[in-house]
Amino acid sequence: MRKMKRTISMILCLAMLFVAMPIPSLAEGEGTPAPEGLQDQIETTATNQAAPKETNEAETTAAGQTETQATVQSDSQAMDQAETTATNQAAPKETNEAETTATNQAAPKETNEDETTATDSVDADSQTGEKDEVEPNANATSGDKSNKTATPLDDQNETEITLTFPGKQDILGSDIVFVLDKSGASAQEGIYNQAKTFLEEIKQDAADKDIPVNVGVVLFNRIGNIQLGLTDLTTGYDDILKAMNSSVSMGTNMHAGLLAAKAMLDADNEVDAKNKHVILISDGATYLYSKGDDFKTSYTRSFGDPKKQTNSDTGQPYVNGRDMSGGIWEYQSREYNTPNDWKKFDDSTNFIFSQAMQTPEKLGEYLKYYRQQDQNWAQYEYEYNFGSAYVGSGRKTTPIDIHAPANIDIAFMRTDDTFQEMFQTGYDMKVYFKNAADFDGTVFLQYLVRESNGGQLDTDFTKLQKEIIDRIATGSKVEDVVGKDFDFIDDPTKISLSVGDEELKIEKISEGKYGFGPLDGGKYRFELTHTNESDETLTLEINETIFPNKPVELKYHEKLVNVPTDPGEHIFETNERATLIPKDGNGKVGDPIPFPVPTVTKTVEGSTPSTDLVVTFDGNGGTIYTDSPDGKAIVRKFVRYGEEIVILGAPEREGYKFLYWQDADGNRYNPGENYVVKDNHVFVAQWEEDKPQEKPQEKPSVPRIELPRVETVVTVKIPKAGV
Fold first, then answer.
1. Which of 93, 154, 206, 313 lies in the 20 to 30 Å Cα band around 452?
2. Residue of 346, 417, 413, 331 lying closest to 374 (CA atoms)
3. Is the pLDDT of residue 610 over 90?
């Protein structure tokens, strides 16, 4: 009975303690910090690369009790301020932290003040990163995207082309998520003031230049807290500052903070990945981690009280350290109770955590080793909550072993995994170092940005501001390839360029090159060059930063040169392609942005290709012989529009000679010629009378009279010669 009363008394005391004491913070050693003697050993180990001198157990215990009391008092004051800040942002009625803790501490998964304060002030949509406002693309107009149009062809077969850019939706939309250590940005005046100035400047630019920018805020303690979902910067500026100034406590889980930011950004499908920016502000201290995508539950590991574990080499309890309750100093229990020289880095220093934190390269080698060991020790992890941290419920003890990963090792690995995944997705990852408290995690932060920023931490917001605001700056250009059926009309009276309501005067620089808006040094704000080599191309060079509130409008004329003659409607694309190639204020070339390809229609009057046409050959009194031996006076052929036929051979007609075929327009066609049919057509044979040749006239014949035969004798005397 006495034992039962004692137990009840202890429970009542604990309950009173819970009601009176806000949840302490365990980050960077808060709540259960390294004892003074052990902290000296950390510094000695890092400097001398040797095992530290053991701290007297009595001193350690006394120091631990004193520090715990001081921490409770300090944390109580801090939580009073945090509760006041959170109350201003939370729902009208806030759940008291102490009551929540006392009520739910026996449940498998408790709901504590940090979850209530951090999340109840944000609606469900904000928790997933969804926006309350209507989708910008639901009623998109021509001003939302870069555009290209063409007027109908005029009587001269000319069309006016208009390019308008940039559009605000698909070019300049940006998301920014601040991922802040649990103390909030207000605790670090230097980096906070920079962030505030940055927000003020881009807020003004976003409003003046019609640039959509959304900002979200995540605070991480033992979990990820979405203090504010993605909110329009121009209309929600005050809410953004309040969220950044808020504070939560208990634990440090950078991994959960990144998971919350990732969930918020992943849910926004309206902004390109390359336009999503993460601003992580931290001292690099983190010792808790999450599983999967659940940023509302945290896990840790603990070596427990080293003095309650037996050293297998000596058979005696370990002598260094105390129970770190799954906090940031857990690695010391392994480091101070095992040989430090069991393995070496390449520089011959001991393969221990304090040495790994000297350079990002050594930390990478260290984490790679313990990642390989984790499968043998994962069974010792447990959920980190108020009960496990302060009462010991649900805790597991990891055996002290040189191969056993500490909680901070796993936290670093998981944080890095998520960070690199977000970077590979295309998110712009910025990391800023805030002033270190009792743990300097600079090297870990440098390790995080080894791929994204060459291992260099960010120090100001100038570069980011140019990425967000000066998205299309000097060095950007438009390339427009003229359609194959058109020619560019190189006439300055038919070329114009305006910026917003300002029309710039055109000046001819050289043959095929024009300038708009003169600058110093012979340059122009915009320069248009026409080339006609393999492709006829127009290139517009941009020598200033342009914004969607004052879009650029380039107009020029093209002439249709391949004019169709076939009846019907003919559709032509005015250009092969047109592309805006952006370059931001930092000189970084962005992804090409295509313009739409406009079309124009040319209508040719006449029969349509689908109509059957009749071609008639009229013998005109003659007989037409085709494939049949029987001749015909008329031959008809039924053909399709555009079909090519052969003019028939010469018909036959007695007494006439064939000359040629002739149509109604007087056109003459010879047999064997080719003819393309475009309408009903009649060919009539043309003849010439074939007259016979006249014979020469014969002389008239005289009748022959037969006379009776009379014989007469005639004597002729011939004188002799010489007589």
1. 206
2. 413
3. no
Q: How many CB atoms lie within 10 A of CB 309?
A: 18
Q: Looking at the DSSP assignment, which residues form a beta bridge with residue 132?
A: none
Tokens, residue 314: 């000596």
Residue 385's SS3 state is coil
Asked whether the bond before 166 is cis by omega within 30 degrees of 0, the reply is yes
Q: How far apart are CA 193 and CA 570, in angstroms?
A: 63
Could you tell me the two tokens for 616? 């008639």
CA 132 vs CA 120, 125, 313, 489: distances in Å: 17, 7, 63, 49
Q: Which helix (H) or strand (E) holds 294?
A: strand 294-300
Dihedral sign for Cα atoms in the order 46, 48, 51, 55: negative
H-helix or E-strand spanning residue 508: strand 506-510
| Higher-scoring residue by pLDDT: 106, 231 | 231
Give the H or E element holding residue 515.
strand 513-518
Give the Cα separation of 165 and 231 in Å (integer). 26
Copy the structure tokens of residue 70. Answer: 């001081």
Return the structure tokens found at 113.
């003040």
DSSP 198: H
CA pair distance 576, 558, nearest whole angstrom: 13
* Residue 66 CB neighbour total at 10 angstroms: 12
Name the nearest CA neighbour of 170 among 127, 134, 140.
140
Classify the phi-psi angles of 482: left when phi > 0, otherwise alpha if psi is within -120 to 50, otherwise beta: beta
Q: What is the pLDDT of residues 530-577, one digit of tens each?
A: 999 889 999 999 999 998 889 999 999 999 999 998 888 899 999 999
**How many Cβ atoms sit within 10 Å of the Cβ of residue 490?**
14
Angle at Cα 688 formed by Cα 686 and Cα 689, nearest 5°? Answer: 135
Q: Which amino acid is at 229?
A: G
CA 723 – CA 222 distance, rounded (Å): 184
Strands (E), 375-455: 382-383, 428-433
pTM > 0.85: yes or no: no
